[in-house]
């Protein structure tokens, strides 16, 4: 099985090295969903063999595997696959080599099923770098930046220099925003 898909722009997408646990179970990357005969899932806790006569396609989330299947091997009474501990899953299609993915158990999930790699937000943590509005140099909180700033945690407008309606329309995240009364 070829684990790359052609994109509409002619490029290749590679099999991700991570997956995650969602509310419905283990997320299966699209490249691994189609199978013939059986798929074997191995987690630190144990092994699951998924059979389907003639093969088929797995759902995006595999409900038989949840967070309880992962953790340090010594935490399990009888770890089935201790070499995968604490956070790896092996997915093996019949007649093929297994694919090992790292499992993220508390991700920020993107709409395509991938995960966002962003440091955890700690509202009580203090940093030496004060967040400042790039338009008027007023101090803004980390929470304000997270809500109204751009994806690199930069705030381009704040309540001191921009009407709230413009902040709601994205002025804080866009350095080129021109609508409204930014002062």
UniProtKB/TrEMBL annotation:
Start-end of Polar residues biased regions: 10-21
InterPro entries in the record: DUF7563
Region feature Disordered, mapped onto this chain: 1-24
Identification of the protein by name: Uncharacterized protein
Organism listed in the record: Natrialba asiatica (strain ATCC 700177 / DSM 12278 / JCM 9576 / FERM P-10747 / NBRC 102637 / 172P1)
């Amino acid at each position: 099985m070829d684990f790359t898909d052609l994109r509409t722009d002619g490029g290749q997408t590679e099999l991700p090295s991570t997956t995650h646990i969602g509310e419905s179970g283990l997320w299966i990357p699209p490249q691994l969903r189609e199978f013939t005969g059986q798929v074997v899932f191995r987690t630190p806790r144990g092994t699951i063999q998924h059979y389907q006569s003639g093969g088929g396609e797995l759902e995006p989330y595999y409900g038989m595997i949840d967070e309880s299947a992962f953790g340090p091997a010594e935490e399990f009474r009888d770890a089935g696959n201790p070499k995968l501990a604490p956070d790896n899953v092996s997915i093996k299609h019949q007649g093929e080599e297994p694919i090992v993915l790292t499992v993220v158990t508390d991700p920020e999930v993107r709409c395509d099923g991938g995960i966002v790699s962003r440091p955890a937000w700690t509202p009580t943590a203090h940093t030496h770098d004060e967040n400042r509005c790039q338009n008027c140099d007023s101090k803004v909180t980390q929470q304000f930046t997270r809500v109204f700033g751009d994806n690199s945690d930069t705030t381009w407008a704040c309540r001191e220099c921009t009407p709230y309606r413009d902040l709601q329309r994205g002025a804080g995240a866009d350095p080129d925003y021109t609508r409204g009364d930014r002062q």
